[in-house]
Write a structure and sequence with these properties.
This protein has 13 helices and twelve strands. It has about 350 residues and is α/β, with parallel strands linked by helices. The strands form three sheets. It has an eight-stranded mixed beta sheet, sandwiched between helices. Helix 1 (about 5-20) runs antiparallel to helix 13 (about 295-320), helix 2 runs parallel beside helix 13 (about 295-320) and helix 10 (about 255-260) crosses helix 13. It is elongated, with a radius of gyration of 23 Å. The two termini are about 15 Å apart.
């Protein structure tokens, strides 16, 4: 993936419509272009239908969409549910392989299906779950579509305040013999060590795979940091909740460092202001900064959030990985799934270690 080239196009779009050099609100429409006669024949049929002689008028909405598609030209799409299934298809069922899922939640839709289908694979779920997350009725109810929703827990266990012990007891009681939950508050270490030292002995000499589905609030930066430390062979991850990262948080540091080559300090600050939404820290279910029901606002937000992903791609490439960036497709079998909003993932990333 040509990260620098895509960055240039992304910044060109944001400079044009995001006013990076001022505090004006972003524009979600280009200027209209009037029709224009290009030759002496341009106002006569049939030449007035020929672009060599007459330029048709173009609405600002259409032009805005053209600018967006110019930025994203060459990027493939992958359906959200297909991306989740890639480890199931690609990771061998072998004791020589280890899968580590950062920000796993209860693992119902993504991690547990892999562990159940591949009993020889060593699987680790990493999160900092709260007790109420374990107690949710959803964990114990069958989904409308098991193939999509994953399998519920059929056996209940006593729930205590020892989250790690409770989750591991629950996993074992439901037949997950190769799956271990580690309760951990992960810190951004900036290349200094690991949050998961106990996994160093497990991963050495083995093929290591990392997943980080819907990593919130910049957790994706920690996922790739841990994957690099543990010498992962492949990483599958995406970002959510970027609007919740406080402007002074170190989880913006990777993007800030990456953009220094192309933007000045005030422009970088402006990018973060456009991305950040303090209301989201107060009411996660409230109105979103960019309304995805309005195509132009959605397109602007996707391009904006792309900068965060591009910084990650650049970092991965500098650490010996080949990278792929995909746009998320929310369609499934003709249906449009909810979750397509500013808080959710817009890009999927796959990184493979170069031989």
């Amino acid at each position: 993936m040509e990260v620098k080239k895509l960055t240039e196009k992304t910044l060109e779009f944001l400079r044009r419509f995001g006013h990076l050099d001022s505090d004006k609100p972003p524009r979600f429409r280009a200027n209209d272009v009037e029709g224009r006669i290009l030759s002496a024949w341009g106002n006569r049929p049939p030449y007035n239908k020929d672009p060599m002689h007459y330029q048709e008028p173009v609405s600002g909405d259409a032009l805005y969409e053209r600018h967006y598609h110019h930025v994203q030209k060459g990027l493939s799409k992958i359906a959200f549910y297909e991306f989740h299934k890639l480890p199931l298809k690609e990771i061998p069922d072998s004791e020589e392989c280890v899968l580590i899922d950062i920000g796993s939640g209860m693992g119902r839709q993504k991690t547990r299906p892999v562990a159940k289908a591949k009993p020889n694979l060593r699987v680790y779920m990493i999160d900092r779950l709260e007790r109420k997350k374990i107690e949710e009725p959803y964990n114990f109810k069958p989904g409308v579509s098991p193939e999509f929703a994953g399998e519920e827990f059929k056996v209940r266990v006593p729930i205590s305040d020892n989250i790690e012990e409770t989750v591991n007891t629950l996993l074992e009681a439901n037949g997950y013999k190769n799956l271990i939950y580690i309760h951990r508050d992960l810190k951004y270490l900036e290349g200094e060590g690991t949050n998961l030292p106990e996994l160093s002995q497990v991963t050495v000499g083995r093929r290591v795979f990392f997943t980080g589905y819907q990593n919130p609030d910049g957790l994706g930066n920690i996922t790739i940091e841990e994957a690099i430390f543990h010498e992962a062979e492949k990483i599958y991850f995406n970002n959510t909740g970027l609007e919740k990262i406080r402007p002074d948080a170190n989880r913006f540091k990777l993007m800030k460092n990456y953009l220094q080559e192309d933007l000045n300090e005030e422009e970088i600050k402006r990018v973060i202001e456009l991305m950040y939404d303090p209301r989201a820290l107060v009411d996660a279910r409230g109105p979103k900064k960019y309304d995805y029901k309005i195509p132009a606002q959605k397109q602007f937000a996707i391009v904006l959030k792309q900068l965060f992903a591009l910084a990650q791609l650049d970092f991965l490439q500098k650490n010996g990985f080949e990278t792929e960036l995909f746009l998320v497709e929310w369609e499934r079998e003709g249906r449009h799934y909810s979750g397509d909003n500013y808080n959710e993932e817009d890009h999927n990333i796959i990184a493979s270690r170069l031989a």
